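Case study 2.
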Amino acid sequence: MTPANCPRCGGRLARDNDSGRCTPCQAAERDRLSAPPEVPTSFWAHEPVRRALAERHLGRVIRAYRHHPYHGRAALPQAVVAGWLGITQAQLSRVENGPPMVHLDRLVHWAQLLHIPPSALWFALPGSHTQAVDGTIEPARGAPEEGATTSRRQFHALAALAGLEASGCIDLLMPRSAVPSSIGMEQVRHAATLVEEFRRADAHVGADALCDLAIHVHNQLSAWAAKASYSRSVGDALQSALADLAIQAAWLAIDANRRTEARPYLHEAIARARIADDSRVEVRALACMSLLFRQDRPSEAVHCAEAALRASAGWATPRLRTLLHLRSAYAHATLQDSLSFEHEMTRARRSFDSGDHEDDLPFISFVTHQEVTGIQGLSYLALGRASRAAACFRSITAVPGGRFRRNKVYYTVQLARAARLQGDFVGTAQAGLKALPDIGPVRSGRVSALLAGVRSSLEGAPTSLPQVREFADAYDGTFA
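Prediction:
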């Protein structure tokens, strides 16, 4: 009997090899439990995978992926793939066997994790290209790619959709051949104005609507600045403005639940801030990086907050110190370091009690009493103290109105999570129902993903509870 071939490399298998893989391929993939492997292009031509892609059902794509001969005779366990995706085995089972997923942020994230070619997908990945019906290649939906022709009309349309004024900034966003070869302080002021425009627009239309536009604007200005000439004084101001714009793009990526796209912009911002010797911009970048790392890499989040405190020593206002101590407190809680968490929370509240200051930077306007209480609640959640976390979130959601609607919705969803951890199905559903009407208006992929997790967590709740049925029906009807 002729021995079979290894489906990964095509090599001949020994007669006593019952694993379905040759020894070198088994050794090459011993780390497959930690991350998806790089697969060849032919992997996606396998008929079950092609059929699942044609059905536009990512759950079935994942199931076909797990059973692909490339992985050997035994399919990849659901628990392994669920670990890659950041969900439980039970959740993956529902994804594979339930209705098609409709949340674009999760579709994009999982497609990128599994290295699915953009041309095989029915939705566009950020910065990718899609195959047109006639066989030509077109840019993915969203903002124009760097180097593409961007007319005044196109940018005006994008800016109008995002709620940006864009006055005085159009010339900065024209194709590189149309802009001046030198940069003066007037153009730098226009670039700085764009940062303020994005900050204001974020409060009105949300990160989901702004993220691609901010990335496009940043890339366009950076490409122009790399080739233009300018004086030393203009150069320092330009570096600070571009660093600020990179931080704004990173924040929008975080809030749009596109976290993997944020880190390069923050590294760039820190480098530009150091070139310009602008400690204020560097501190803002470090604070944002601490936010980015606080769940997945809490030790680095602590280091970023501490570095920001050192860099701002001598000029930091009480509100800024409050924010940096809050960043550190949450990261310590994620590390299960209760003592350090309590210490940092005490320092945060002490700084907050010192009040506002005329030198407060614009980006810390959200640091209010509710935000301090909210971070304390998130820290209690990380420490497994769900009841104390729920009390914090409940005090925030009980306050009517407020300037920061997205934060209030965010903490309302966190209240639902805390209630679920307590086994309070009714409280979970009630908080979810309270948050649901504002999910669309705030346009935050981060908040939407959290609420989707709340909906999934109620799959095993008693169906006799009317509140649970009401929330499930309302949620499914909203996102159908």
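The first helix runs from residue 23 to 28.
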